[in-house]
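Weekly structure sync, notes
Attendees: PL (lead), two postdocs, one rotation student
Agenda item 3: pending single-chain targets
PL asked that the sequence for the first pending target be pasted directly into the notes so everyone works from the same version. It is reproduced below exactly as submitted, 283 residues in total.
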Amino acid sequence: MPRRQQPTARQQRLGAELRKLREATGLKGRDAAALLGTDSAQVSQIEAGLAGLSEERLRRITAHYTCTDEELVDALAAMTSGRTRGWWEEYRGLLPTPYLDLAELEHHSSYRWDADFLHIPGLLQTEEYARALFSYVNPEFPAEEVERRVEHRMRRRVIIERTDPIPYEAVTHEAALRINVGSRQATRAQLTRVLELSEADHVTVRLIPFTLEGFAGAGSAMVYAGGPLPRLDTVVRDGPHGTVFVDAEAQLGHFRTLFRRVREVSLEPDRSRDFIHRLAKEL
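Predicted structure, written out during the meeting:
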């Protein structure tokens, strides 16, 4: 297979998981190369996501790695098909690669958790709210560039709006609901949108009120995407140096714990809806 110039996060994840399996057996890259009938450079490219491999070769090498976890092998085999040609490919070369990687990650996710305390979580945002955010954070962008980002964010909602939606849970803070990111009317429309989505059986929205004492978790914002197996989950975080995809098992465990903690201190869904409804009436 030809060398990839820009592997997706999903392709890089497959290579990383193969590297973990190889290292767990104590084998070197040259040992894996001998098993595949290639050279060490090719193995390095596979493990970096720069080169792919067929399902047959993946199953052969995982057998040599003495991986007996059939569910894991099947999940990795499903990732060998290469880049998913989903709707997000329309934006390749037009938006930063992490935008596309996030959409592909969501497409393959089995469930999704969001924790955001200063903004309404992305999948719950209205167009006007998202437009105000992108315009403020990127004041140098022309209107066309802002609209492209808004459109992409709105299309990502397909995972909770399609006929076979994934389970979705979001925890946010009263601060995010009270900040008028746009106009007062836009904020009211945004709260109404959150209420509408929260009525769906597969959507859970929880709120942390200002009155909660001892809440120090405002820095634990995250997007948590469930994989076919827990070890294939992914956390996505936005930082000062860009978007980071986290997949180390210890870190995944850390973020699972953080999400459970913010969920435990939040209001129950019914009380959260009542709270949001009262806020909307105040505007």
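Discussion points:
- The beta strands are 111-116, 168-173, 203-208, 222-226, 234-239, 242-246.
- The chain is about 50% helix and 10% strand.
Action: rotation student to compare against the earlier draft before next sync.
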